[in-house]
Amino acid sequence: MAVLRLILADQLSDSLASLRDADQQQDWLVFCEVASEASYVRHHKKKIALLFSAMRHFAEHLRQQGWQVHYSYYKDADNSGSLAGEMARLVKLLGIDKVVLTKPGEHRLLAQMQQWQAELGIPVELLEDDRFLASTDDFTSWAKDRKQLRMEYFYREMRRRYQILLDGDQPVGGAWNYDSDNRKPAPADLAGVEPLKFSPDDITREVLDLVAEQFADHPGTLEPFHFAATRNQALQVLEHFVDLSLPLFGDYQDAMVEGEPWLFHSHISFYLNSGLLLPLECIEAAERAYRNGRAPLNAVEGFIRQILGWREYVRGIYWLKMPAYKEENFFAADRPLPPLYWGAETKMNCLSLCVSETLDNAYAHHIQRLMVLGNFALLAGLSPEQVNDWYLAVYADAYEWVELPNVTGMVLFADGGVVASKPYAAGGAYISRMSNYCKNCHYKVKQRDGDQACPFNYLYWDFLVRHREQLGKNPRLGMIYRSYDKMAVEKQQLIATDAAGFLSKLDSGEPV
Length: 512
Ligand code: FAD
Ligand code: DLZ
Ligand code: SF4
Description:
Layout: E1 3-6, E2 28-32, H1 35-39, H2 45-64, E3 68-72, H3 83-94, E4 98-102, H4 107-113, H5 116-120, E5 124-127, H6 136-143, H7 151-162, E6 166-167, E7 170-171, H8 202-214, H9 231-249, H10 269-274, H11 279-291, H12 297-321, H13 349-361, H14 366-379, H15 384-394, H16 400-411, H17 428-434, H18 455-466, H19 468-471, H20 478-486, H21 489-508
Parallel strand pairs: 1-2, 1-4, 2-3, 4-5
Antiparallel strand pairs: 6-7
Helix pairs in contact: 2-8, 7-12, 9-11, 9-12, 11-12, 12-16, 13-14, 15-16, 18-21
């Protein structure tokens, strides 16, 4: 019986469930570069190049291992342009009796694939994606009967289950979480570790030409392009991080520095999410560095928490709450995404830098995504649908399972508090403390009102006042509302006037 085993762009792992019991003599391993997936949001050029190049390299790796591989190239004359179209075409072309695939990371695609058996008229088997450390069933049982789904408790269970950073059954060092040690502001001259860069080989070069030609209207800068394209290169990125950046990862995890987009972060999300790296090997590499005295506990625990905790947790939330989660809009926010997110002029230096780094690199680190780009979207009341589409398009590590809970839950509080216990809203003081962005800004971060005041300052209060009905009873915000109530009425009026003036400028398309 000939089985077609479809491998998606983010399923580039030898250990993929659908490869496990494959038959080298009869089965076909199939990759499809298709217009529908490359364009359902306007993905960053570098993201498309990264995935097409990694797919082509992985297909070659499988061919060299003796597999029959069919690869639908983007420009093939008979490429139908969609995954469903390619399945219909290839089932006939290759004489296929059955289709096997590992479940995708997006609800949209899963819903389509669940129709394929009826559409194709042959059995279609969808296997669980067991490259994650918590299955969707594990997460559902953890979530059952809990009033609150806080990441911290999920993370502790995962530490115990995988025996990570434990002494017996207790956390190494006596605490589960060293986050309070991980908030050092950036010294003025802080320079990050230069990321490992790979020169494009012939396969990548061909992909870069294709993307330049076919996706010229997509956002972002295509070259220079230095991402890893193979597992071997991705492993080098991991090793580079553990050796050079991990020791300082904790201290400067939340720091932001003008001209330093990469700092001490690992830059492995591209490879973890496309399957070139697996989560447990990254966690174990970090734990080994701690046990060998090569990195301190706050750094190692902080890094491991991101992968064993946050990454698994957001995936659990996604599958638990979809499809309704995509429609969540707790604050009924409906302001369109302003053109500054696509690089239009803004006098706000923090936003301008984070947007331009995003468009150049298809990357921004967590605090830039959360406390600058996300904080502004929250305070300005931007439409969750448009904000989600933006994050999904511009980051090379973005797939809906990970992007949506971070944006709808963590950044916009659009789920009403499933992921976060209060909105991550902040005034300019936070950005000023954690970065050197304010030094070169048109606005004055210490100024509270007037034309020169940092917009984050009045937008912060205006947001809280606008949403008092939804947030006023949140115990974590009680003190903040009390300090607003103690402000002089004139001060409260200035906040309202400045915010209204700023938002109307934003709406009229005037640079802010
Ligand atoms: P590091 O800082 O070195 O962290 C190590 C790893 O931990 C990351 O590679 C990632 O796999 C994991 N991780 C860290 N934080 C999170 C998190 N909140 N959720 C899930 N995994 C996490 N991450 C994505 O992989 N894809 C996305 O589309 C994405 N969208 C985001 C959108 C917003 C608004 C926010 C606030 C965060 C988002 N993140 C996303 C999480 C995080 O910003 C990125 O994982 C991280 O910046 C990737 O860079 P790094 O590999 O250098 O991470
Ligand atoms: C993001 C993406 C892009 C740009 N192109 C393709 C493609 O051509 N073929 C493919 O199999 N997958 C692609 N993807 C990833 C999918 O859109 C989707 O996000 C993931 O497969 C979900 O698991
Ligand atoms: Fe951003 Fe305000 Fe600082 Fe300017 S002053 S960089 S707008 S936080």
